[in-house]
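Table S2 (continued). Query chain:
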Amino acid sequence: MFKRNIKILDRFIIGKYLGTFVYTLIIFVVIIVVFDISEKLDDFLRSGLGFWGILTKYYAGSVPFYVNMLSPLINFIAVIFFTAKMADQTEIVPILSGGVSFNRFLRPYFISAFIIFAVNLVSNLYILPYTNTLKNTFENKYVRRNDPTTKSNIHMKLDKRTYIYIESFDNRTSTGTRFNLDNIEGDVLTKRIVAETIKWDSLKHKWKLSNYSIRNIAGLKESMIYGTGKTKDTTLDVRPNDFSAYDNVVQNLSTHELAEKIKKEQIRGTGIMNDLLFEQYKRYLTPLSAFVLTLIGVALSSRKVRGGVGVSLGIGIFLSFAYIVFNQFTQMFSTKGGLPPFIAVLLPTISFGILGLYLLRRAPK
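Corresponding output:
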């Protein structure tokens, strides 16, 4: 009978936890979508895509983004709301008085947190890169249309002997001007390619050089090839996204593409290594917040307090927003201030984890 009652308790708490989480998440997403529509209505009308086009090319990407962004906040609110309600209705005291330890009481909470953790992890690794591409492509084209689309004075090392320079690259046309490529053996220049323009051919997946010249150097012997008024296809280990002027392009990379780009960045040294590492660590480590926020939520709301559910809920909303703001600050210090990305990603979780352990010690046993 005791084991049966324990199983009933587990099912009750897991059902309350996940049910409240999903219900609250849907409400918040609907509210955000309504405000988003009112804010971007002119952009939607200007795009000329129609209802189905907006739905499939923007909201199919933005809704998963909102869900992922709100997940820590909603997770925290859901735990605090139904746990504080249980405490207010004096449901927790009989459970603990009946021989159930507080650690045992926490088990269904952490089972629920593990489910949310697993869903967020799978979403970060396999779903969000694709949906973020839809969202960011639409925003870059229609919402951020007045933002600069060109990147200037690009210097990049492609491998141990190949260096390129592009004076200006336009992301909308995938075209660069005044392109230089140098092959250097040791400290000796062996080949130089100069072109007036370089353009990405999306069908051939190659670069097309226009009005080019090729200078080959072998000791004292040199040869020149002139392509004035001509075009030439060439293969380079770069893609237009490598020259992107948009700051959200890293979010579009799949997990495999992100790992490959990090390896290449170690050679290229274009200055975006912190952004890449922060994005990689974030995908793996931020889902751990489900456990930390669950711990804080239970420890904070399991005691019956004067003022009822409202007091606990208010404190929970304040702490959840503090967690989100803390995440934004650490990201800024990582990408702009030199804070190691691994520490920047883990710091909010560790800090709030310590707070959770402190609150757990003060929780009623």
